[in-house]
Amino acid sequence: MILEAKELRKTYKSSKNVETIALDGITFDVKKGEMVAIMGSSGSGKTTLINSIAGLLKFDSGRVDIDGNNILEMSKDQFATFRRKNVGIVFQNYNLLDCLTVAENIKVPLILEKEAEDEMDMKVKNIAQIMGLESVMDKYPYEISGGQQQRVGICRAIINNAKLIFADEPTGNLDSKSTKNVMEYFSKVNNEFGTSLLMVTHDPVTASYCHRVIYLQDGKIVAEVKRDGDRTAFYESIIETQKEYIK
Ligand SMILES: Nc1ncnc2c1ncn2[C@@H]1O[C@H](COP(=O)(O)OP(=O)(O)O)[C@@H](O)[C@H]1O
Ligand SMILES: [Mg+2]
Question: Which residues make Cβ contacts (< 8 Å) with residue 217, sequence separation at least 6?
């Protein structure tokens, strides 16, 4: 397993001492090479779940293992290093640096690892080719489309050979054509490198590129759909399940 989450619980307390149970005992796994989508109504706990697992938010109790490593047993520094080497994060709004070119944006994580210059350039070129970005390498983020920007975001997330990518609504700002394009490129990366994905999405088309969808309701997993056959059939069963669990 690339990810094991056990009995995750998280309650938010507001200033008026109102408690909201955001995660109510969540247990699930992601297999190596698996792409999993989390769906659910607004407020069902999706962001809390993915942020807790990615180490961006402190949960109250439970356990998270990433590639067999219990993240709660690591010190802050150990976890930061571990995350840099093993995990990538893709943001809804891309989070690219506007003052850097596409090639430079992709290179940022390698610079942090202090790799040799020619090694870095080779890796950047290789990943850009896989993601279909060769023609825009010298452009700035504001000179390329949203879909291309998100593909740059994915390159940056996987350039350090991340085994697991976390993404909260990665196609949330994209039109349907760019959405399909981004997910097709991610599937290619998944095929080529076996990179796993845990992603929150509202969009059944985006989810249909995954191997499995889990549905959250009030901080609990209430349903799961597995892909078994072609993407169109999976899309149909996602829509069907959605009718019941997403109101
Ligand atoms: N910082 C916070 N303080 C208080 N309540 C919060 C906070 N963040 C989220 N919540 C509440 O926790 C629940 C789950 O939120 P969230 O994880 O953002 O859901 P989703 O991403 O599915 O929309 C909601 O009821 C939300 O209002
Ligand atoms: Mg959310």
Answer: 40, 41, 44, 245
Establish whether residue 52 lines the binding site of ligand 1, counting it when its CB lies within 6 angstroms of any ligand atom: no
Q: Residue 79: which residues within 8 A CB-CB, separation 6 or more?
A: 55, 71
| Domain residue extents for the chain | 3-245
Task: Show the DSSP H helices in 75-172 as ranges.
Answer: 76-86, 102-112, 117-130, 146-158
pTM metric for this prediction: 0.96
Using only C-alpha atoms, the chain has a radius of gyration, in whole angstroms, of 18
Is residue 122 helix, strand or coil?
helix
Ligand number with the minimum distance to the CA of 48: 1
Say how many Å lie between the CA of residue 39 and the centre of ligand 2: 10
Strands 61-66 and 69-70: what pairing? antiparallel
Q: Please write the tens of the pLDDT for every residue from 9-23.
A: 999 998 888 999 999
Please work out whether the CB of residue 127 comes within 6 Å of at least one atom of ligand 1: no
Rounded Cα distance between 45 and 128, Å, is 34
Distances (CA, A) of 175 to 60, 145, 204, 247: 37, 11, 13, 23
Ligand 2 (ion): which residues have CB within 5 A?
46-47
Out of 3.40.50.300, 3.40.462.20, 3.40.30.10, 1.20.58.760, which CATH number does the structure's domain 3-245 have? 3.40.50.300
Encode pLDDT of 136-156 as tens digits.
Answer: 999 999 999 999 999 999 999
Residue nearest (by alpha carbon) to ligand 1 atom 12: 22
- Note the ligand closest to the C-alpha atom of 59: 1
